[in-house]
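INFO  loader      accepted 1 record
INFO  loader      residues=71
INFO  predictor   begin
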Amino acid sequence: MADRFTGVYVALVTPMTADGEIDLVTLCGFVEHLIGRGVHGVIPLGSTGECYALDDGERRVVMSATIDQAV
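INFO  predictor   done
INFO  writer      dumping tokens
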């Protein structure tokens, strides 16, 4: 099956500032670091538990920033 995922995929934590805002600089740094270390994919809003606590707009921001950094 050619569509199988292979390699290492990392569930990302969503970093927050002390004020409770999404820390996009740190998030993009995480993505860049992991890709630089050879991971095959990143999973924003994965199994680290914060997804339920973010609203739709915040989820879109996290997804967009992650995608933009990864490509």
